[in-house]
Amino acid sequence: MLPLYGPAVHAFRRPSPGPPPRPSRRSLLALAAAAPLTAVPFVAAPAAAASEVAVGGARLVADGVQVDGGTALPKGLTARAWLLADHDSGEVLASYRAHLRLAPASTLKMLFADTLLDRFGRTERRLVTDADLAGIPSGSSLVGLKAGITYTVEQLWQGVFLRSGNDAVQVLALMNGGVARTVAEMQARAVDLQALDTRVVSPDGYDHEGQTSSAYDLALFARHGLRDAGFRAYCATRTARFPAGGGKTFRIENTDRLLSGTYGVTPYPGMIGVKNGFTSNAGNTFTGAATRAGRTLLVTVLHPRSGHNAVYEETAALLDWGFAQGSSARAVGTLVEALSEGGAKAGAPGGSSAGGAPHAGSRAASAAGGGPGGWGVLGGAAGAVALAAGAAFTLRRRGRRDAPAPAAGDRESVTGRPPTDG
Asked: Which residue stretches belong to region Disordered (predicted)?
């Protein structure tokens, strides 16, 4: 059974000898948000401004299914929100509550990768300590990092992409200067990508009050990430060997069931990733991409009402419809480009917006208590980090790294833990 974890679950610290352990990441985030130093305006647009901008077009903030042309959409779609788009053109072919702000679960790790993937070389190594693993929330999905084992950056990213490991996320965040700094940089990256429904509280997508994203924003993260050779290679990897210590390894498998074909799900032809997630609060979440006859489509499905495989079944149905209706379905909106890469700012003249139309998604999130209020202003040093990160993202474009080489098996393997979706 998958672990249930949500806002009511407390973070536990693993004991370690020696000096007093540093504060847990949840404590650090709370301190950063509540710092009594001079309040620094956060790089993200304030909630009121975000709610007035219809990023991608007016139809994407309207309530109800948005589609223009083609045959009837698949029956039995139960998700609270979904979106289907053409990866190359950015045209949104159909959507339902594309900007509804919902808990993203581990699909938020796409933004984590968009932000940090190029920071460290693949062969760079990290000796993991007990302190590195302290404060990971109870019930988190884990790849199984162990103190005393040295991992390459490539292996840590395999832990993120394949096993949705919150332990791997935390170690990479610490390599980046800390969890709070990484959260601030992720928020700055979201703003640069014009993902205005996204409020980042933790880098791994674990349930936290106020942490939200949307079907639209998650599609932006996936589209941007898939332009990077390393991101594409990681999310398309089905299995890898992972260090277990003592020269041994164990097999890890991608939790994307449309890619790996596990738990009764048939692999989808042409599937290339991207990221799934689950928490008791978010339900099942998924952004997937598939290529057929030279065309790549993106689908995000958030919180379907029915069984555990429904998120994959509804994704496959929307992909089938999109590939079949490619020549007749007309765009109902567009996935915008990053500001740092020449994208027009949503809401500005020539940008993609509804010119101040109310944002249906933000109203729904506020009513559910999941709005962005806690992160409209970030005080103290973390706020300064956010501003610096935002400026850096605006001034430079991401470099493209070579795709990582497949992981080689070691001499001996041990059995890994049963897979869970994170």
From this structure: 342-370, 396-422
For residue 31, give the nearest of 400, 396, 393, 382 by alpha carbon: 382
- Above 80 in pLDDT, residue 403? no
pLDDT at 254: 98
The answer to whether the CB of 413 falls within 8 A of the CB of 248 is yes
Q: Provide Rg for the chain, Cα atoms.
A: 20
Residues near 201 by Cβ (< 8 Å), separated by ≥ 6?
A: 29, 183, 208, 209, 210, 211, 374, 375
Q: How far is CA 409 from CA 103, 122, 230, 252, in A?
A: 36, 17, 20, 11
Predicted model pTM: 0.77
* Active centre residues (catalytic): 106, 109, 164
* pLDDT at residue 124 greater than cutoff 70: yes
Strands 412-414 and 248-253: parallel
At the fourth CATH level, which superfamily is domain 25-71+79-414?
DD-peptidase/beta-lactamase superfamily (3.40.710.10)
CA atoms lying within 13 Å on the CB side of residue 202: 27
pLDDT attached to residue 70: 83
Taking the domains of the chain in order of start, what are their residue ranges? 25-71+79-414
Give pLDDT, residue 219. Answer: 98
Tokens for 292? 């057929």
DSSP H/E element including 224: helix 215-226
Who wins on pLDDT, 359 or 313? 313
Tokens of 373: 């209020």
Rounded Cα distance, 251 and 265, in Å? 20
Please classify residue 330 by burial: count the beta carbons closer than 10 Å to its beta carbon, then call 0-12 exposed, 13-18 middle and 19+ buried. exposed
Amino acid letter for position 34: A
SS3 248: strand
CA distances from 375 to 52, 215, 382 (A): 18, 20, 11
**Cβ–Cβ under 8 Å, residues 287 and 299:** yes
Q: What is the DSSP letter of 131?
A: G
Supply the mean pLDDT for the chain. Answer: 79
* Percentage, residues of the chain above pLDDT 90: 65
- Residues with Cβ within 8 Å of residue 314, at least 6 apart in sequence: 74, 76, 77, 78, 79, 82, 301, 304
pLDDT given for residue 350 in this prediction: 61
- Residues 6 or more apart whose CB falls under 8 angstroms from that of 12 comprise 135, 137, 138
Q: How far is CA 191 from CA 106, 141, 239, 386, in A?
A: 19, 27, 33, 11
Tokens representing 271?
């599937």
